[in-house]
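Dear colleagues,

As part of the handover before I leave the project, I'm documenting each prediction I ran so the next person doesn't have to rerun anything. This entry is a single chain, and its sequence is reproduced below.
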Amino acid sequence: MRNELPPENAYRILESGPIVLVSTRGADGRANLMTMGFHMMMQHEPPLVGAIIGPWDYSHQALSETGECVLAVPTVDLAETVVDIGNCSGDALDKFGHFGLTPVPAQTVDAPLVRQCWANLECRVVDDGWARRYNLWVLEVQRIWIDTARKETRLIHHQGDGRFSVDGDTLDLGERMTKWRHLMG
């Protein structure tokens, strides 16, 4: 037996990337965080990420003004905080302070890293041509920081309607990736 889902639920099937926090700093100097589930890797070299950030997001203005952000990758221990961050707006709230998260200076962008996150990717906008039409920003990753001291490294993935899956076991098939070996670090 098969059950049909409406087409607008395609993200539940296809969106496999982890939930991230987008850190920005506006022209006014205020740092902000937003929760984002709609993003994708676009290519390896240069490393490009597509991110959906629309005018309904307070972070949209800061990204438009500065052209830079940090994609902070939280782990499952931050799941409730990540959901709560996504359910309020930075126009009325200092999210770093309210949620007890620590902003850390980045090296190549003014937006802060998030100390409590397992990974932080410093990014610059390299193409905003699709932003007006599709709210799709193309970001180039400038630097990546990994907290190797963190014991919890399981990532969370949005499945829609407040449901999430959590990373489990890793299946390493690297030896079979003969065609793409040059891309493996």
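DSSP finds five helices and eleven strands in the chain. The mean pLDDT is 90.

All the best with the project,
I.
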